[in-house]
Amino acid sequence: MTSAEAGALRRLAPPARRFLAHRKGVLVRLALWSLAESGQAFLVGHAVARSVDEGFLAGDPRRGLLWLGVALVAVLSGARVVRGVFAQLAGVTEPLRDGLVRRAVDRSMARAAPGGPGGTDRAAVSRLTNQVEIARDSFAGLVLTLRSFVFTAAGALLGLLSLHPALLVVVLPPLAAGLALFLVTLRPMAAAQRRALAADEALGDHAASARAALRDLAACGTGPGVERRGADLVADAAAAARTLAGWAAVRTAALGVAGHLPVLALLIAVEWLRGHGVSVGALLGAFTYLVQSLLPALHTLMTALGAAGSRLLVVLDRILGPETETDRVPVPDRVPEPVSVLKSQPGPSTASASAAAFAVDMAAAPAVELRAVTLSYGARAEPVLDALDLCVAPGEHLAVVGPSGIGKSTLTRLVAGTLAPSSGEVRVAGRPVTGRPAAELAALRVLVPQDAYVFSGTVGDNLAYLSTDACRAELDAAVGAFGLGPLVERLGGLDGTVRPAELSPGERQLVALVRAYLSPAPLLLLDEATCHLDPASEARAEEALAGRAGTLVVVAHRLSSAVRADRTLVLDGVRARCGTHAELLDRSPLYRDLTGHWNS
User: Fold this and answer.
1) Is 32 exposed, middle or buried (0-12, 13-18, 19+ CB in 10 A)?
2) Rounded CA gap, 294 and 152, in Å?
3) Bigger pLDDT: 370 or 347?
4) What fold characterizes domain 1-163+279-322?
5) Torsion of CA 33, 38, 43, 49, to 10 degrees
6) Cα(39)–Cα(70) distance, rounded to whole angstroms?
7) What percent of the chain has pLDDT above 70?
């Protein structure tokens, strides 16, 4: 047994004992039904031997038929025994499944709750569905087969001993050899099963990440790298499955040794057994014990224990054991040279809000700071952002421009803390954002994407969603500042009902912008959040947001957004530049090209 398996057994032993201790009644009833199964196994072989020796060979066919009738009754009673066993089995397996589901949900909720480690638990879906069902089915199979083998084997071996001790001398050696070979496979099969589950989770994690980033992957041309990574993970999963299949083949060989050699040995030793006083009836009874009871139970045990046992240990350790870090950040193949160092000049003097969750003097720390940040969607993909340094002062209004797919949305996600960099550090208000709990991030920044979110409810609920303590006067003032009055009046006032499908994309964006304006977060991130507004509405919204206490970062949709900003960051995939509108017209050919396109 490996150290990992031994550690898993040590971790799982206490909860297993507690689980079984609370179900003593079910276990007792299950044992009673199993004793009936043991008696059935004993009677079948014993009755066959008696029917031959004391009935047919003794010239008393009536006695022989009577004993065969006993054997028939024992066989038919098996249906009642199986029914009783399964009725009690549910009392053990279903509570296990419910407990594992609760544990998986509690772990995921604790990870996402305030004060938790934060981040997305991407293995949660696998644990709640596939792994819980694996544990339930594996546990049910193990309980059923272990119980059946122990009690059936006890009845069959006792029967062989009662017929003649020499029968055990012939049957036990090949039986023990097959069992020993089978036990040798348990350790590597458990390791192979662990690798197979890890490969399955890694592949699911990669698929979820790629699906969430499809737009950026297509825009940045990094799809082939992600595809290669996916192919590698598929190959790893296939290799793990092949290894598992190889050990399954060894287990099958062990099953053949234990399941067939005892019968062959009994046939070969017939003459020797007859010489030691074993009767014909005892030989037939021994064959009956092997074929009818012992070998089928052994076959079921080895099949279940070899596959279900290792799966159960691995899955239970993943669900009940200590949490491990599964979110790995891709590391680039090389250390890139810095493309630019962007330091801000003192921005406009404005009062900056503070995040109540942090005891930080906001004026003393940059509102946004990127330190040599690199982001690649794949180990071999070209970086979307390459060693980018950026410093945004509190209260500053920064516009971000660049060609489509150059990484503008990626930059806002990095600053918002919803995407982790491959290397480097992102700070907001002097604090790293990577891995920070969602509640703390929400107190620092608001990210408004291009596809604005509006929910069914009242107008006031939608506007005050990020500032639940906003009074009616503040809501009215915000509505007036953004020119949202006609829409609010049309919907029936602040208490009117919002039906998202009935709003135009521009109207949804205005609602989302007012919501962000009312938020106490000191940093607003607009990712083309005004693209559906006409130029006049966009100018009015940005002027209102710029006059709000705090810092504003806008992915610009029009030239006017860049002109209104204190500074503009130009991303071109080669050398990022930052400066005022006039400075960039002089220093950035790309910015001049974009300006010409916007003016055309």
Assistant:
1) exposed
2) 7
3) 370
4) ABC transporter transmembrane region fold (1.20.1560)
5) 160
6) 12
7) 73
Average pLDDT estimate for 268-278? 89
Cα distance from N-terminal residue to C-terminal residue, the chain: 73
- Rounded to 5°, angle at Cα 446 from 443 and 452: 145
pLDDT value of residue 141: 64
Q: Which pLDDT score is estimated for 28?
A: 78
The conformational region for residue 424 under phi > 0 = left, psi -120 to 50 = alpha, else beta, is left
Whole-number Å distance between alpha carbons of 108 and 63: 67
Say if CB 488 and CB 541 are below 8 A apart.
no
Q: Which pLDDT score is estimated for 168?
A: 87
> Could you please report the per-residue DSSP string of 37-81?
HHHHHHHHHHHHHHIIIIIITTT-HHHHHHHHHHHHHHHHHHHHH
Same fold, 1-163+279-322 and 355-599: no
Report domain extents, the chain: 1-163+279-322, 165-276, 355-599
Tokens describing residue 394: 């509190």
Class of domain 355-599: alpha beta
Mean of the pLDDT values across residues 491-505?
89
pLDDT tens digit sequence for 386-442: 888 899 999 899 999 888 878 888 889 899 988 888 889 999 988 898 888 888 888
Cα(271)–Cα(521) distance, rounded to whole angstroms? 92
Q: What is the mean predicted confidence (pLDDT) over 81-107?
A: 69
What integer pLDDT is reported at residue 221 of this predicted model? Answer: 60
427 near 372, Cβ under 8 Å? no
Half-sphere exposure of 548 (CA within 13 A, CB side): 28
Q: How many residues in the chain?
A: 600
DSSP secondary structure of 415-441: HHTSS--SEEEEEETTEE-TT--HHHH
Task: For residue 497, give Cα distances in angstroms to 476, 502, 559.
Answer: 17, 11, 36
**Whole-prediction pTM value?**
0.43
**Between 232 and 198, the higher pLDDT residue:** 232
Rounded distance, CA 131 to CA 28, Å?
29
Question: Partners of 465 in the beta sheet?
Answer: none
The pairing of beta strand 340-341 with beta strand 385-392: parallel
> pLDDT band at residue 219, thresholds of 50, 70 and 90?
low
